[in-house]
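Input (structure):
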C-alpha cells in the first residue's frame, strides 16, 4: 500500500491510494478486439500490456476506476516466492516443480525492475532489501531454510543472527532473520499509474465505469455485454478479483475477501532512524506485521486483515499500539492517515493463473503474492495466447476451490484471529524463555565466580617441620629406613 504528494516525488500523500488521474471514457459503442481484459488492476494491466506488445488489439473493462481497490493499496514489495511457505509448496508439488515456480517469481521480479525506472515512472522511490524476521528463536530451522533457498533454489539470501537483527532493528521482539538483498520496494501507486501509462502507449484501450454484465465464452468469438455496448474478442482474461461478480460468479466465489488496512505515520524525526536502521521492507514470519520507512522519517505499516470491511480509522489504535509494543522508543507514533483495500485470498494460498476453457483465461488470487506474481502472470497469459506457451500450466495444481461463502468468511476471520494470537503468544513465550535462559546464565556465572573466589581465599595446610613430627611421633619419611628382623 502506498503514500498523496505535496510534490512530485515527496510528501506524505504520495503513499496513499490515488483516484485523481485523468479518467478514461466509458465504453459506449460496440467494439471488436483480439483480447478483452476484465479488471484494470495490476494483473489486468500487466496482461494487457504484454499482449499489446505482442501485437494484439486489447480492450480493458473496469467497473470503477483503474487500480481502485487492492491494486491501489499495494505496499510495493517485490520479493521472490509466493504467499505459501516454500516448505509447504515442496510438500505439495515436489521440489522440481517448486523450483520452476520459484524461477517464474524471480522472472517476475526482473520484469518489474525493468519497468520501474525513474525515467519511465518518475518518483518510483526504489529501496533495496527485504527482511523476514522471526518472532521466535528459529535455531536449526534457519540453517535449513537458508540451505533450501540458497542452494536448492539459487536465491541470494543471508542469515542474520539475533545480535545482528537487534543491532539493526532495536527491539527485543525479534530473533533471527533472513535477508533478501535483491528484493526491493517501490511506490505502489506510481507503479500502478506507470503501468497504466505504458499500456495506453502500447495501444491498450481502457474503459472505466464499464462493468461486464455478462459473458458468453462459447464459440470462437466471445461476447461481453456492458451497460451501454457489446464487445467481441477472441480471448477473455478475468482479472477482476473479489469484485468480478456476475461475469463469473464461479471465479469470484473461490476468493476469500480480505480487507488490509495500512497507515502512514506523521514524521518521527531522528528517533525513527535510531530505532530502525534498515531502509527495506520488514515482515515477520507469522504475518502479523509488515512495514518499512518511507520519506526518510515516516512509517508505512499494515495492520490486521479482516474478512469483513472495517473502517480503517477504527483500526488505527490497534496499529499504533502494535508499533509501540515493538518499538517503545518511538512512543505514541501519531498516524497521519489510513486506508484499506480488499484483496482476494485463495483457499490454497496460491494465485490462479491459466486457461479455464478455450479462450477464457484467469489471472486472480494475488492477495499476499507481491507485485512480481502479477507481472509474471501477465507474461505467461500473453505468451500463452500469442505463442501457445504452456508455462502457465505450472499453476495447474492450484485449481479453483470454493471459499465457503459467508460461512467461509466467518471461519476465515476466526482462523485469522486465532493465528494472530497464537503468533503473538509464541513470541511472548520465546522472549520469556530467552529471559529465563539469560537469568540462568547470570546465576551460573555468579556461582562460578564465587567458587573461584572461595578457592583463592581458602587457607592452605602447611607441612610440619621435622622436630614437630618427632615430637608427635610421626616418622620422618626422609630419614626412615627399612627395619631389619634378626
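Output (sequence):
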Amino acid at each position: 500500500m502506498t503514500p498523496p504528494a505535496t510534490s512530485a516525488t515527496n510528501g506524505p500523500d504520495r503513499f496513499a491510494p490515488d483516484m485523481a488521474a485523468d479518467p478514461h471514457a466509458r465504453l459506449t459503442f460496440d467494439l471488436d478486439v483480439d483480447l478483452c481484459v476484465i479488471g484494470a488492476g495490476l494483473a489486468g494491466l500487466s496482461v494487457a500490456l504484454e499482449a499489446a506488445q505482442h501485437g494484439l488489439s486489447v480492450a480493458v473493462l473496469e467497473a470503477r476506476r483503474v487500480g481502485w481497490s487492492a491494486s491501489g493499496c499495494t505496499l510495493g514489495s517485490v520479493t521472490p516466492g509466493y504467499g505459501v511457505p516454500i516448505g509447504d509448496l515442496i510438500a505439495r508439488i515436489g521440489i522440481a516443480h517448486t523450483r520452476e515456480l520459484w524461477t517464474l517469481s524471480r522472472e517476475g521480479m526482473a520484469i518489474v525492475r525493468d519497468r520501474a525506472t525513474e525515467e519511465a515512472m518518475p518518483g518510483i522511490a526504489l529501496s533495496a532489501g527485504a527482511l523476514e524476521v522471526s518472532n521466535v528463536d528459529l535455531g536449526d530451522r534457519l540453517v535449513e531454510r537458508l540451505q533450501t533457498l540458497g542452494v536448492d533454489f539459487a536465491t541470494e539470501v543471508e542469515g542474520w543472527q539475533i545480535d545482528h537483527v537487534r543491532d539493526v532493528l532495536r527491539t527485543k521482539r525479534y530473533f533471527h532473520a533472513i535477508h533478501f538483498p535483491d528484493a526491493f520496494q517501490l511506490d505502489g501507486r506510481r507503479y500502478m499509474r506507470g503501468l497504466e501509462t505504458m499500456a495506453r502507449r502500447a495501444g491498450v484501450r481502457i474503459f472505466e465505469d464499464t462493468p461486464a454484465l455478462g459473458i458468453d465464452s462459447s464459440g470462437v468469438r466471445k461476447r461481453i455485454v456492458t451497460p451501454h455496448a457489446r464487445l467481441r474478442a477472441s480471448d477473455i482474461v478475468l482479472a477482476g478479483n473479489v469484485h468480478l461478480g456476475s461475469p463469473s460468479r464461479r471465479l469470484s466465489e473461490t476468493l476469500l475477501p480480505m480487507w488490509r488496512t495500512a497507515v502512514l505515520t506523521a514524521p518521527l524525526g531522528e528517533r525513527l532512524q535510531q530505532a530502525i536502521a534498515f531502509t527495506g521492507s520488514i515482515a515477520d514470519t507469522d504475518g502479523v506485521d509488515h512495514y518499512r520507512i518511507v520519506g526518510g522519517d515516516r512509517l508505512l505499516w499494515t495492520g490486521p486483515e479482516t474478512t469483513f470491511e472495517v473502517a480503517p480509522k477504527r483500526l488505527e489504535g490497534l496499529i499504533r499500539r502494535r508499533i509501540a509494543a515493538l518499538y517503545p522508543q518511538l512512543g505514541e507514533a501519531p498516524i497521519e492517515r489510513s486506508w484499506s483495500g480488499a484483496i482476494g485470498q485463495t483457499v490454497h494460498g496460491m494465485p490462479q493463473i491459466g486457461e479455464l476453457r478455450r479462450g477464457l483465461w484467469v489471472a486472480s488470487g494475488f492477495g499476499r503474492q507481491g507485485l512480481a506474481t502479477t507481472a509474471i502472470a501477465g507474461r505467461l497469459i500473453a505468451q500463452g495466447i500469442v505463442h501457445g506457451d504452456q508455462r502457465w500450466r505450472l499453476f495447474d495444481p492450484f485449481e479453483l476451490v470454493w471459499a465457503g461463502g459467508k460461512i467461509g468468511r466467518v471461519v476465515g476471520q476466526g482462523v485469522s484471529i486465532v493465528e494472530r494470537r497464537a503468533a503473538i503468544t509464541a513470541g511472548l513465550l520465546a522472549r520469556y524463555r530467552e529471559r529465563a535462559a539469560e537469568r540462568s546464565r547470570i546465576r551460573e556465572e555468579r556461582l562460578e565466580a564465587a567458587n573461584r573466589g572461595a578457592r583463592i581465599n581458602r587457607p592452605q595446610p602447611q607441612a610440619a617441620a621435622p622436630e614437630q613430627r618427632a615430637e608427635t611421633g610421626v616418622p620422618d619419611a626422609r630419614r626412615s629406613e627399612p627395619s631389619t628382623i634378626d
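Notes: The two ends are 110 Å apart (CA to CA). The domain at 12-395 is CATH 3.50.50.60 (FAD/NAD(P)-binding domain).
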